[in-house]
């Protein structure tokens, strides 16, 4: 039994951040009911990498395990009534609609908290529920661009580069997950529900705690250099370097160790805390030249022998095959009724007494509509009428 066994989560979110947060709650044992349109949630129709799957694309599959699907038309009176009845006994409600949509659909916090004062209502947005940017689209790349983070890496004079992941979505998901847990703890202590607001702009800004404080408190501006340093506020060398057959990553080495490891006497006598800051480009260029003489394996062994922080640069194939990943059980594997054998990232948090578990893979559209509605007290005749009228979809109907 997971830690959140016995809690019910209504997941009305779409795309990545909201579904990811709800999935984490499901991984901890909560009964997550994915409330989606009768045509299926948006992410079912927008496959990352163009990987469409047999019936469920990989994007949806990866973000919606441990959920049951209730397919309902929230724009209809009957559909809205279904959701409001579920709210009566729910513990958490998650939505990431654009500003004003929740109110138009009748599932805003004021409406739902009047029905269930103990409800934890998690509202996720791109920029905040109000303010000058409230109606802007909260898209990952756009938020990366506005966060300032892109201007901390790469070469001066060249276009800033985005992270290779949906970074802002993931961070926002974890903030929502954390907020929901904290609000549930408060409710356990006081009996009070509350509204939890999370937005993408604040999420990506606040994880830059050190960098932004160096700027706001220390007054040191971001200043990219001619060489592609991996961070403007860390001394050189710091970044990735080509070997004869690949790449390695190198972080804040001592120069005496570099001289010995790479047979490069030009590092001798240099003070890393002085030259590493004052002549970053020259140090970076020297490091690049020295490392290029070795294979990846040779460079790694030489640098590690001197206690220098160094790592290979992996692609996904390398990561999946890594022995530490295997030891940690980072990936979980299961068989899905339509998508076959699935291998996907699993549970990053480990509990000694209440471990996370896989109860079900991502649901098909309306796969659990009947059982969810029956548990909420709807009769078979009522369910059949709603299906016939289009307010609810049952898988196969």
UniProtKB/TrEMBL annotation:
Domain of life of the organism encoding this protein: Bacteria
Source species of the chain: Psychromarinibacter halotolerans
Molecular function terms, GO-annotated: transferase activity
Pfam families recorded: CoA_transf_3
Record protein name field: CaiB/BaiF CoA transferase family protein
Entry keywords, A to Z: Transferase
Gene3D superfamilies according to UniProt: Crotonobetainyl-coa:carnitine coa-transferase, domain 1
């Amino acid at each position: 039994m997971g830690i959140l066994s016995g809690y019910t989560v209504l997941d009305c979110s779409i795309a990545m951040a909201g579904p990811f947060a709800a999935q984490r709650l499901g991984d901890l044992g909560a009964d997550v009911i994915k409330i989606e349109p009768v045509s299926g949630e948006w992410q079912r129709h927008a496959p990352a990498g163009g990987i469409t799957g047999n019936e469920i694309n990989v994007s949806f599959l990866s973000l919606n395990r441990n959920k049951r699907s209730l397919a309902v038309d929230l724009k209809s009176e009957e559909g809205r009534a279904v959701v409001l009845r579920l709210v009566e006994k729910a513990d958490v409600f998650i939505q990431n609609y654009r500003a004003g949509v929740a109110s138009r659909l009748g599932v805003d916090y004021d409406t739902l908290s009047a029905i269930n004062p103990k409800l934890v209502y998690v509202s996720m947005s791109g920029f905040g529920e109000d303010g000058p940017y409230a109606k802007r689209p909260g898209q990952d790349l756009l938020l990366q661009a506005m966060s300032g983070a892109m201007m901390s890496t790469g070469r001066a004079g060249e276009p800033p580069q985005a992270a290779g992941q949906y970074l802002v979505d993931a961070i926002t998901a974890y903030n929502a997950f954390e907020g929901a847990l904290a609000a549930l703890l408060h409710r356990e202590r006081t009996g009070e529900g509350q509204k939890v607001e999370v937005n993408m702009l604040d999420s990506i800004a606040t994880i830059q705690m050190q960098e932004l404080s160096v700027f706001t408190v220390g007054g040191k501006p971001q200043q990219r250099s001619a060489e592609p340093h991996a961070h403007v506020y860390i001394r050189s060398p710091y970044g990735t370097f080509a070997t004869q057959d690949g790449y390695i990553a190198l972080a804040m080495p001592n120069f005496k160790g570099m001289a010995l490891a790479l047979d490069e006497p030009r590092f001798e006598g240099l003070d890393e805390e002085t030259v590493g800051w004052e002549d970053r480009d020259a140090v970076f260029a020297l490091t690049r030249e020295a490392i290029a003489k070795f294979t990846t394996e040779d460079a790694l062994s030489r640098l590690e022998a001197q206690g220098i922080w160094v790592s290979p640069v992996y692609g996904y194939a390398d990561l999946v095959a890594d022995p530490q990943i295997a030891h940690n059980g980072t990936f979980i594997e299961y068989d899905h009724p339509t998508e076959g054998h699935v291998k996907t990232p699993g549970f990053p948090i480990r509990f000694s007494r209440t471990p996370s578990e896989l109860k079900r893979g991502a649901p098909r559209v309306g796969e659990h509509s009947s059982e969810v509605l029956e548990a909420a007290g709807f009769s078979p005749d009522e369910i059949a009428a709603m299906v016939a009228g289009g307010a609810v979809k049952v898988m196969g109907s």
